[in-house]
Amino acid sequence: MPVSFSPLSSDFSVSPQLTPEDMALVAQAGYKSVIINRPDFEGGPEQPASADVMAAARAAGLQVEYQPAVSGAMTVQDVERFAQLLKELPAPVLAYCRSGTRCANLYQAAQGI
């Protein structure tokens, strides 16, 4: 499955589930940071583990943060942490979850902080 990025601003995009193998492509696309919003194994044992994606991201020269957020049950703390990561991480930032929607919702909510 090809990697797809959906820009929400000049410094932030979302994507569906990514794999360790995708991290080099993320870096080549010009991203500096990745936020993983999908909890490990939410999609079952075939879902790539965040630790594996994080190792590949670092090997590709990316900064990466694991901030799992449960779909349909995001908290104020989730939004606050996401807003903080957007301030701290070098841009442009790419966030992913199962479909990208959860990341987009976090981003939209973080704009009000």
Number of strands: 5
Element string (H = helix, E = strand): EEHEHEHEH
Biggest sheet features: 5 strands, mixed
Structural category = alpha/beta
Work out the strand percent.
Answer: 15-25%
What is the molecular shape?
globular
Instruction: Name the average pLDDT.
Output: 96
Helix percent reads 25-40%
Strand order of the largest sheet: 1-2-5-3-4
- End-to-end separation in angstroms reads 35 Å
Uncertain stretches: none
Number of helix segments? 4
Global Rg: 13 Å
Write up what this structure looks like.
The chain has 113 residues and is an alpha/beta fold. Helix content is 35%, strand content 18%. The chain contains 4 helices and 5 strands. The protein has helices at 23-28, 50-59, 76-88, 101-110; strands spanning 6-9, 12-15, 33-36, 63-66, 93-96. It has a 5-stranded mixed beta sheet, with helices on both faces. β3 (33-36), α2 (50-59) and β4 (63-66) form a beta-alpha-beta unit. α3 (76-88) packs across α4. The chain is globular, with a radius of gyration of 13 Å. The N and C termini lie far apart (35 Å).
Draw up the topology in text.
Blueprint: E1 6-9, E2 12-15, H1 23-28, E3 33-36, H2 50-59, E4 63-66, H3 76-88, E5 93-96, H4 101-110
Parallel strand pairs: 2-5, 3-4, 3-5
Antiparallel strand pairs: 1-2
Helix pairs in contact: 3-4
